Amino acid sequence: MSRTIFDELRNDLKKIEENGLFKKERVIKTPQGAEIGVATGETILNFCANNYLGLANDPAVIDAAHRTLDTYGYGMSSVRFICGTQSIHKELEKKVSAFLDTDDTILYAACFDANGGVFEPFMNRESAIITDALNHASIIDGIRLTKAHRFIFKHADMADLELKLKESQTCKYRMIVTDGVFSMDGDIAKLDKIYALSKQYDALVLVDDSHATGVVGKTGKGTPEMYGLSGKIDLITTTFGKALGGASGGCVTGKQEMIDYLRQRSRPYLFSNTLAPVVAGASVAVIDMLQNDPSILKGLNDNTAYFRSRMENAGFDLKKGIHPIIPIMLHDDRLAITMADKLLDEGIYVIGFTYPVVPVGQARIRVQISAAHSTEQLERAVDAFVRVGKELNVIS
Length: 396
What we know:
By secondary structure, the protein is of the alpha/beta class. It is 42% helix and 14% strand. The chain has helices at residues 2-18, 59-72, 80-83, 87-100, 111-117, 137-144, 158-167, 191-200, 223-226, 256-265, 267-270, 277-292, 295-314, 333-345, 375-391; strands at residues 35-37, 43-46, 104-108, 128-132, 149-153, 174-179, 204-208, 235-239, 250-254, 325-329, 348-349, 352-353, 364-368. Helix 2 packs antiparallel against helix 12, helix 5 (111-117) runs parallel beside helix 6 and helix 13 packs parallel to helix 15 (375-391). The longest helix has 20 residues, at 295-314. It is globular and about 55 Å long.
């Protein structure tokens, strides 16, 4: 049996390589930033990190991390309810709640864990979860852990969402679940319409705002702020591993009763260590920075608009939107991988996304803009895309 499974794995891996779809990890030898050094010795421009606000290597964030390390030590060696809670964890929970206009917050080691632990305590076989077809893998896995009835509505299709709400009306409790920003397309959920339907059909709403917190909304408070719904969404899951410093850690924030219940019943919270105190301390500093210096967010928005405009004028097929996730549509898997490799040769670090990460025929290069990018760096990237795009007949 062992030989059979290893033979099968080897054959599958060989097919992935032959199809040009084998995912290789590129090793970085420097801190994360707009410009990075890689293992081969080159210094290249990075356009595929979630470092939206450019704070992953910010001196003030590093200083806060050092101070937290000196004060609280390295790790907790315990789960929260035994002896794994420090005052810095409670401070971060209060900061997040105040920032996102929620009642309370519960921390997790990652947002994947938050999504893995947020559904099962509430949603049993008498309940229904109604989820967008393009929701993140962590939401899909979290829903699988429940005994709730599952309804999948077509991506961003409010008529289909309403149909699923009607079909599930016999269930005791219902929860609508959506990404705030969808990671492959960069499109933003129609949260205003989702919220209106939730009120009409008496359903809860959960938003995973991982790609929106610190990025979307007038002051970076995410999709609820963008739609004037701050304080009204039942549950928000989000991460500290993207715009808010880029290290790790996640949380669920929302209604008091639900957060209290998660502390009693959420298995990833009860049975694994929380995020390291150094991450908590640096995350507190990042939230303070974002609230005190709105120019960080303006720089990101300006860079995003500039790059989109330059690429559209060059003739590339871009997914429409305003988010710093900018998909360059290529539609062919091999082409996406080849173009990303050639761009790396030009000193531009991007990744080609292919099936099964994106649907068949939707292959792309996903560019991610950072506030840390300079105009000169954006121009270098556009110039490289144009050269490679012409070589591969992507543009004329």
